[in-house]
Amino acid sequence: MACPDGMKLMAYLDGELEVSERESLRLHLLECPGCSRLMESQRRLEAAWRDSWRDPPDSRFKAMRESVDRRLRKPRGIPGWLIGAAAGAGAVFLGVRVFLGPGRGRLEDRIHAEPPVPAVAGERPEEAFFGGAPADGPYAEPSSAAMGTAEPEEAGVSAGLGPSSPVTDGAGASEAEGAKIVSGPDSPDGSSPGLLYHRPSHAPALEPEEAEETLLLGQAADGEMGVSPAPRAVMAVQDAEPSGALCEAVAVTGTLSRENREPVRAAPSFTLSCTGPGGAEVRPWEGLTSFVQGLLDSLGRTPSEFRLDSLGYTVEQDGVPRTYLGVDDPAMVPMTVRVTAF
Amino acid sequence: MILFLVPPAVPDDEETRLVRLASGGDREAYGRLVEKYQKRVFRVARRLCGSDDDAWDITQESFIRAMNAMENFDPGFRFFTWIYRIVTNTAINFYRRNSRRAEVEYRDDYGYQGLTVTPDLAAVNAEAGELARAVGRAVESLSDPLKSVFVLRVDQELSYGEIAETLGIAVGTVMSRLNRARNRVRILVARELGREGSWPVPTE
User: In angstroms, what separates the C-alpha of A125 from chain B's closest C-alpha?
Assistant: First the structure.
């Protein structure tokens, strides 16, 4: 039996396989040191975390229950006099609006002109990368206002927030919805550059603070303050593909903390040029630059040319194409990246 | 083929009675339910938010929300998945209100997070306490959708079917998120415990 994929191994670990499959996997584990080692280490890791739990003292729970009880005893709702006052104020306001006439029309215009909540590209890389999970919003569930449905974030981080969201499936933003590639910090709408993703043209502009931090990543001058440690690439060999190409995985990791800053490396000693579909030039963005920098750190070298597409990037080494996974995003535009070192 | 056994909703008579009473506004019955689930709810909150104080606030808020919504409780639901859902969503909302970390987590320029393979952790020979702390920090850094699936499965040991019901997502989604969460946790733990060098890397 060939080694099962990680998801199946984990389903075995979780006791979620049907009997016959469980049995064949059990036999496989007996003869495959790799899989059994993986399984054992996973089991150990999870047990260590789970067993580290200590319940707080019962007195603390009692205090919590009393507090809940107290709060539930308080009458909910708004006092009647306040509702009356609010209704009165509303009537006056409505009167003014009606009286002013045109104002009402403008208000409606404004409501309709408000862009629908976009899916933010940032949510999707991870969603998409790990293998095609249906992008049903993280906690989207109809009919559950009373059940504490997760509130949409102001920047629309949750995908599929509601019927007005143009992007509620894994297909991502399509051209028809006005999507475009934002490829540089000086993009016309002032938004932060996206990485490999179509970004809906109506995506909200990021806060200046964030935009600034983005620029610091791998692009700062020597000694400037940046996120520490800088994002870097982590690689691991997965398996040989039937085609003979070696399949590997790449992840750029790095702390995401805002507090932890220290002087960063000098700007990279290479330039990038990217060609998109039909030979169209795509301006490199700093996310790509830090990605290539990560490759440089990880491999000790940078490929002079590679192809980026929704699967990852493919680079020819000793005449053999090797596919490095890492960018599984169907919305990504395939492109060729040339790296010129100097 | 993977078979998902969703345990039949075995009606716990006492619990069904309490839920019915609480739906009618009986706070004493509700108090019994709170007593029954408080530890689990607190534990989920604590695992999701990483701070004791916040976890108490979230626990309290969840039980208040739940009581206020009791009259709309759908008897077709199991109470425990319902309360799990409330605490999960409360924790996430609480976290978003009180922290900017989530925004940073989703930033575009970190698009390459994650591996499809799992690094070999066997080389990590940490003692359990050290390992548990490293896992805890790794879990904290997960995005909300991954974190909640990980906590519900690994910590609470819910079945895939129960997690799907709790979060209102498909079982397949549970599996893929869980797989991703586990991969990420392994990567971060291996990194923190300094065993990256033992991972297979491409050779020239």
Answer: 5
Is B167 within a domain?
Answer: yes
Nearest CA in chain B to A136: B169
CATH number at residue B33: 1.10.1740.10
Is it the case that residue A298 has pLDDT exceeding 90?
no
What percent of chain A shows pLDDT beyond 90?
A: 10
A204-227: average pLDDT: 35
Region A39-53: mean pLDDT is 89
Query: Which three-class secondary structure string do you get for chain B?
Result: CCCCCCCCCCCCHHHHHHHHHHHCCCHHHHHHHHHHHHHHHHHHHHHHHCCHHHHHHHHHHHHHHHHHHHHHCCCCCCHHHHHHHHHHHHHHHHHHHHCCHHHHHCCHHHCCCCCCCCCCCCCCCCCHHHHHHHHHHHHHCCCHHHHHHHHHHHHCCCCHHHHHHHHCCCHHHHHHHHHHHHHHHHHHHHHHCCCHHHCCCCCC
The list of chain B residues with pLDDT below 70 reads 1-12, 95-126, 194-204
What Cα–Cα distance (Å) separates residue A111 from each residue in A100, A104, A116? 18, 11, 10
**How many structural domains comprise chain B?**
2
Residue range A164-201, pLDDT digits in tens: 333 333 333 333 333 222 223 333 333 332 222 222 23
- Using the structure block, give the residue that is written with the tokens 């080389």: B123
The two most distant CA atoms of chain B are separated, in Å, by: 71
Say what angle helices B27-49 and B52-69 make with each other, to 10 degrees: 140
Note the ipTM here.
Answer: 0.80
Residue A184 DSSP code: S
Residues B73 and B132 in one domain: no
Beta carbons of A197 and B169 less than 8 Å apart: no
Chain B residues in contact with A61 (beta carbon < 8 A): 38-39, 42
Residue B152 lies in a domain: yes
Q: Which residue has the tokens 């003692």?
A: B127
**What was the pLDDT predicted at B41?**
95
